[in-house]
Specification:
This protein has six helices and no strands. It is an all-alpha fold. It starts with a helix and ends with a helix.
């Protein structure tokens, strides 16, 4: 080969190489830009994650502080309640030890109330019996008037009692005091026997 052909071939190779090189740079520039954008996006994402982690750590610390404060408040309330319970137990012990007469008096007053209630019910029953006997003496009335039983007068009370309700529940529902409910039930038992 002649030297000029070699020069032409070398020139063509140089030109081809020169044409190829800028294309490589053009291809590398977008990929390099893409890498830079990815790096900046990842850095931004990592910054956000760090901020979220810091906020989460701060919130956990706040919650821990709140839980500790609540625990301390509950502990102090528990101590106060325990002291109050001890005081009440001491007062109860003192009243039981020092005032047995007062206890007996309160029990007597409750007994007297029950007795007076029983007396009033008995008086009412006697009065009804007397009025029934007066009606017997009147010829216009039936010859044999029936005496009204206690169950007839307190039908709701005995209905609730038959349903198995407690005396407290019967007292609340009928509006009759607890002692009176007990007395009425006792009188009904006596009346049946």
């Amino acid at each position: 080969m002649s030297p000029w052909i070699i020069i032409v071939i070398l020139g063509a190779c140089a030109i081809a190489y020169a044409l190829i090189m800028p294309r490589k740079d053009k291809v590398q520039q977008p990929s390099h830009q893409l890498v830079q954008e990815m790096e900046s996006t990842l850095e931004h994402y990592m910054t956000e994650i760090e901020q979220d982690n810091d906020a989460l750590i701060q919130r956990v610390a706040e919650l821990k502080g709140e839980a500790t404060a609540a625990d301390q408040r509950m502990h102090s309330q528990l101590q106060q309640l325990q002291q109050r319970l001890d005081q009440l137990e001491q007062q109860k012990g003192k009243t039981t030890e020092l005032n047995p007469a007062e206890i007996i008096m309160s029990q007597r007053s409750e007994g007297l109330q029950a007795q007076s209630l029983m007396d009033s019910v008995m008086a009412e029953t006697n009065q009804q019996m007397a009025s029934a006997s007066e009606l017997q003496g009147n010829p216009e009335q039936e010859e044999d008037p029936k005496r009204e039983s206690i169950k007839d007068r307190y039908t709701e009370l005995f209905r609730l009692y038959d349903e198995g309700k407690s005396m407290d529940a019967i007292s609340r529902q009928t509006g009759i005091q607890l002692g009176e409910v007990q007395l009425i039930l006792q009188l009904a038992e006596r009346e049946e026997s």
